[in-house]
Amino acid sequence: MRARTFLGRSIFAAAVLAAASAFAGDHGRVCPPAHPELARGFALTGWFDEPVARPPDVEQLRALRERGFLHLRLPIAAESVMTRFSPAAEISARRQAISTGLDRLSSLGFAVVVDLHGGERLGDLFRHDPTAARDAVVDAWRVLGPLVEARVEHEVAAEVLNEPPLDDATWTGMQAAIVTAMRREMPTATFVVSTGGPQRVERLTAAAPIGDRNTVYSVHYYDPMVFTHQGADWLRPDPIGFLAGVPFPILDHDPKLARLAETARAKGEHAVADHLAGFAGRTFDAAEIERHMRALGDWSRTHGRAVVIGEFGVYRAHAAPADRLAWLAAVRGAAEANCLGWTHWDYRDGFGFVDVKTGEPDEAVLSVLVGRRGASTPPRS
Fold first, then answer.
1. H or E stretch at 238
2. Bond from prior residue into 165 cis (ω within 30 degrees of 0)
């Protein structure tokens, strides 16, 4: 890893040291000092990843920074900075807006992960012409790379590509080529890298790291999706998109799931009922989450590479609030116990902790993630 210079960064330094302290000692483990700025964060959706920007409330961000969040994951609509998809004038205007936004976030004391977030058009390109898609990603980082490299001392990092729509074997070679090209624009920046597809735990623990050592590995964690994504209508016709009331934890022969299955079958929703029936005899609880996080921590220590839970969260419309809090606490606690940073998905949308109508944050969720108001470190599960 590159040496870091902390001079002139008084706003950020105290929080980084506090995070490093909070990350030491669980289960007798001392967490590595690399990238404490990625200990706790959330995804700042809605600003540069949508056709109509929804800039965040700066004072609210300031308050969240004071509560203990250290970094923001800033999704950027990939096609908006790719010459294949956008006119040069629009790319230039977007680049300037992102530059201004990064400076604003840095002034609040946040580290930032600039997240290249592909949409449907890039996904289609990957399916039909992977080489052209690779070149488009490199093209995007020619636009964004100088913005990141100019702000390395403000802890701005570059996430190569969110959930690459390729199998692991194909993405491994392609990512290495993209990273090599990115280094020409960003010789000292930290890169956030991943396996292919949905960036699952078991895919990373079965993988070897790429050669570039100034990297952080990101996994996305939404297990079990029958709980975290219940009622998410964009998943339909997947049965998960029709569910509500799925509990956490899920117990062996869980009577709640059995009742949900009976109700679905009575309504003629046989695919939903069959999906729920598949959980009979299975348990998914905090111990299962701990097992997954422990596997990631072991991989991190074995390979000497930092790992962050780059996304985790619960779609809030159809999950019981208490169960949502229990799941979030289990993931956050197990991640920290195993020296893993985390980034909650998202901020104010379907998985968020800010009410989009009132603009007020959910204090219960904040307490689970970063501790009660006035507390110096988050409580342990």
1. none
2. no
The neighbour count for residue 244, using CB atoms within 10 Å, is: 11
Q: Write out the two tokens for 177.
A: 């080529």
d(CA 73, CA 337): 22
Mean pLDDT by 10 residues, the chain (381 residues): 35 44 49 84 96 92 95 98 97 97 97 97 97 98 98 96 95 96 96 97 96 96 96 94 95 91 93 92 95 97 95 96 98 96 94 87 95 58 33
Give the predicted TM-score (pTM) of the model: 0.90
* Both structure tokens of 42: 């959330």
135 prior amide bond cis, ω within 30: no
- Per the omega criterion (within 30 degrees of 0), is the bond before 249 cis? yes
The rounded distance, in Å, linking the Cα atoms of 134 and 131 is 5
Question: Bridge-partner residues for 116, per DSSP?
Answer: 76
Tokens of 268: 């003629």
> Looking up tokens 């890169």, which residue turns up?
191
Q: What is the DSSP letter of 97?
A: H
Q: Return all residues near 246 (Cβ < 8 A) that are at least 6 apart.
A: 226, 227, 230, 256, 257, 260, 276, 318, 319
For residue 203, the tally of other CB atoms under 10 A from its CB is: 17
Which amino acid, residue 363? E
The dotted CATH code for 10-232+284-370 is 3.20.20.80
Domain ranges of the chain: 10-232+284-370, 250-283
Question: How close are the terminal C-alpha atoms of the chain, in Å?
Answer: 31
Dihedral class, residue 268 (left if φ above 0, else alpha if ψ from -120 to 50, else beta): left
Q: Which amino acid is at 9?
A: R
Query: Apex CA 336: angle with CA 348 and CA 156, to 5°?
Result: 60
Contact at 8 Å (CB) between 41 and 34? Answer: no
